Input
Amino acid sequence: MTLHILKLCVGVDTVDDLRASVERRVAARQAAGEEAVLRHVTRMTPKRAEEIAGSGSLYWVIRGFIQVRQPVLRLDPVVDAEGVSRCAFVLAPELVVTRKTPRRPFQGWRYLTVTEAPPDEAEIEGDDDMPAEMRRELADLGLL
Output
């Protein structure tokens, strides 16, 4: 069974800001001869890691809305500079824009089931004739 993770994207105002940050971080990893993925290190390892790795995604909450997701390739155990065990979410570098869905602030991360996850923008039925920018603006106004 697939399970997703929901996390606040702190310090980012738009999906484009996140995209630029991901591109910079992945480029830096490539320049250092490392794997071209994004690693997001958290304090805790999810207890349901096997349901997330390889099939789930990390859904980012930006400015109070779930707006984008990144596929989770795997979860790696890591040890920080102080010798404390952590968990690295190894994420695919591509960002998948989702339906903009409101979400209240929370600490840490939350599990997100497949049925609770917002659909990808490309999969939204009935909006094929509406440009993506117009759909986003209508969602910002609370009309979608």
Q: What stands out?
A: DSSP finds three helices and seven strands in the chain. The chain has one domain: 3-140.
